[in-house]
Structures are given as structure tokens and as C-alpha cells.
Write a structure and sequence with these properties.
alpha/beta, 5 helices, binds zinc ion, about 25% helix
Amino acid sequence: MNTSLKRLGHAVFAAAVLSACGGGGDGSGAAPGAPAGQTAPATLTDARIVADINFSNAGFDIGPDGRPVSNQRPAGTWRWPNTPAQPLLVHIPAPGNAVEQDLADKVNAAIKTYNARLGAYLVLEATSVLPAAANVIQVGYNNAWVPPGSTDYNSYCANVSNAAGFGSTIVPDSRNAITNPVFMNLGNHHCNVTQEIVNHEFGHALGLAIHFDVFGNTTAPDNVWDVLATLYGNPASTRIENLVVKRAAH
Ligand SMILES: [Zn+2]
């Protein structure tokens, strides 16, 4: 969880340094079940939603020449393909103990919340069987990436990566799709994986590459529903200036 991500130069995005997510923030935005008394995040303006997508998704890996670096992908947004017609599978391994059961329960709760808010654009589907070849988010228990030598377990409580237990961020393919498995590494044996953290990691797994002020800000709840509704309510490779803002369900 750190604002230093915002200061990372574009050139170093691929250096396997992203994805530090600790506690803080609420993560659930105005989701059902938010703690009583919590102030609901303000509604984001259309301009704000577009700017957030530009920062965290479409523009996260723009090189010096103004073109995306990863896989020579086209300009514009990137995301999981074929939604909502094709569900995005979430592989939840069989829990082996009470701690893992708790993590599995929180993943299932997150899926329920995401489907309630974003179901018009994106459907998540839990599976206990690892699909051979499919769009899938693979959940792992207590395998979050912690930098070598670090004991800052709270700041590295969970992350999303392109390999289990690894620290490198996911990148889109050459057609602006997420087509390889994405790994959601939850917990490190030394931190408290809250529901808010699990909800937050789904934001990363859906294509929000970089924290911004209503995503991963330790002093304010996440508020990414309309950002994700807009990302998934427009086709991949939509250019920022052509985005049609969509709103999540309440
Ligand atoms: Zn994060």
C-alpha cells in the first residue's frame, strides 16, 4: 500500500516491483455490509472515472514514445475478455485449516459483492476445480509476496501477480486482453487478511495496475465500482477519449 507506486517511472513498471497491498482503507466502498457509521464515498464524476482508468489501466505502461510497452499492445484499455457472457473463474483451493477456510470465505464474499455491483458487465464464478485452460484467477493461501529481507508483513499482506507467490504485476497480451492465469496471493502468516484487502486484490486482478486516490489509499475506503463498471462496460482497447462512463449497481 504505498504512494511510491505513483512515483514509479513508466520505464520500471516491468521490473517486478508492483503489488504491495496491506491493510488500511475499507476496500468495500459503499458495498452492502460496510461497517455502520462509515461515510459512504462520494460519487465519482465522469471525468474522475476516466482519469482513474487512464492512470491505473490504460496508461500504466506507456513508454517514452507514448506507446504501451507491454507486448506492443494497442493503446487504450485492457481487461479480461468476453465478459459478461463468459464468467471469469476464480479457483479457490480446498482449505486445509481454519485460517484457509477464513480466506476462502472472504473470497466467496468478495465474489458475491462484485457480482452484485458489476454483474451487468462482469461475472465472477468460484470453482474448486482448477480449469485446464480458461480465464482464471488462482487464489493462494499465505503465499503473498514479501520482498526479500523485509519484515513489513502488514504492507505486503496480499498481492496479485503473474505467478503464484511472486511479486510481478500482471500485464495484458498483445490484444489488450488478460489471457494468462492471474494469481491472488492472500496472507503471509504474519498479517490479518481483512475482507477489505481481499476485495481490494480483486481490483488489481481485474486490471487496476496502480493504486490511486480511491484505490489503495490507506486513509480512505476504496471506491472503484464505477471505475470497474466503466472499464468492463467498454470493449478492450477503448481509447480514453472514447470511454463511455458506466455506473455500478447499488
Ligand atoms: Zn493494492
